[in-house]
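Attaching the record inline, Q. Sequence:
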Amino acid sequence: MPNSGPDFDRERQVAVAAAEEAGGLLRRRFGTAHCLRTKGGSGDVQMDLDLAAEKLVLSRIQRHFPHDRILSEEAGLLDATGERTWLVDPLDGSNNVAIGLPAYVVGIGLCLGSTPVMGVVHEPVTGETWHAVRGHGAYGAAGALSGPDPRLPRPGPVVAWTQGYAVERGDVTAVALRAVLELRCRRVLQLWAPLLGWSLLARGTIDAFVGYRAEGVDLPTGALLAAEAGVDLRTLSGARFRPGFAGDDSGRSFVAARGETLAHLLREVGGAVSSAAPG
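Structure, as predicted:
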């Protein structure tokens, strides 16, 4: 991918250092983590490690960029002047950590207005970090990320699934989407850590990612990583998808894939959405 636009190198370096430092804390304290509270009726939890990692990341960002806004998973919106907004998910996968499942990441992104321009995802378990800057590609320790194969695999794609915490268990569209994915795909991963799904997609380890009313704090970071690795982002109806963090979650449903896989999934999810529509 040709280089174009600002490289946000200082911001990327600060985000990588903060994510990796927070990751080290999470890895060391994983076995002693405990749940502080549940959040609403969705089953989401807040761990003590959420707050510890968040404090570390926020202090780094505020020290280097004191005039920027920050939207963080636990602290909410820390307002300041300007159009730059940092997005922080200090522990994406809290529900996994709560049951002792080591599937979690740290995510840090930067948006100009509503457009993601820089994103970092760090996986403490492996120590790997992936990062992207808009117009400059996506990278990991081994070099540029190239995304999944655009050819439709047989007997079907491996797909990650995410839905927002506000989606009720019996939501007819969510039920229809999950059903068609289970029927038409080789495997559907419900990771409870969307940024982990985005990193798998950007690396080409899985074939696609489908989301329904996704959470806003980690969506732009993960979507940028995938897009800069060559993944095509579409709405459920096939239009171009613009990942954002503000506004109603009805605008945060997507299909992310390439080539034949993307076309296959858009046909399937389009039918599922139509079948779920009232009357």
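The helical segments are 9-29, 48-64, 94-98, 172-184, 194-203, 219-228, 259-276. The radius of gyration is 18 Å.

More tomorrow.
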